[in-house]
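In the design runs reported in the main text, the only information available to the sequence generator was the tokenized backbone. The following block is the verbatim input for one such run; it is reproduced so that readers can re-run the procedure and compare outputs position by position.
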């Protein structure tokens, strides 16, 4: 389990466009907020 201030593990997931996005590609460049939710207009 992560605690406040821990570095998140690196991962790659598809964006809504289908293009893969890797967390580490933003390291040192931008602040990142992770938000996981069901894609609009899909069952779930």
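Verbatim output:
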């Amino acid at each position: 389990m992560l605690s406040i201030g821990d570095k998140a593990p690196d991962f790659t997931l598809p964006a809504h466009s289908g293009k893969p996005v890797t967390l580490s590609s933003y390291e040192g460049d931008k602040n990142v907020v992770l938000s996981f939710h069901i894609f609009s207009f899909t069952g779930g």
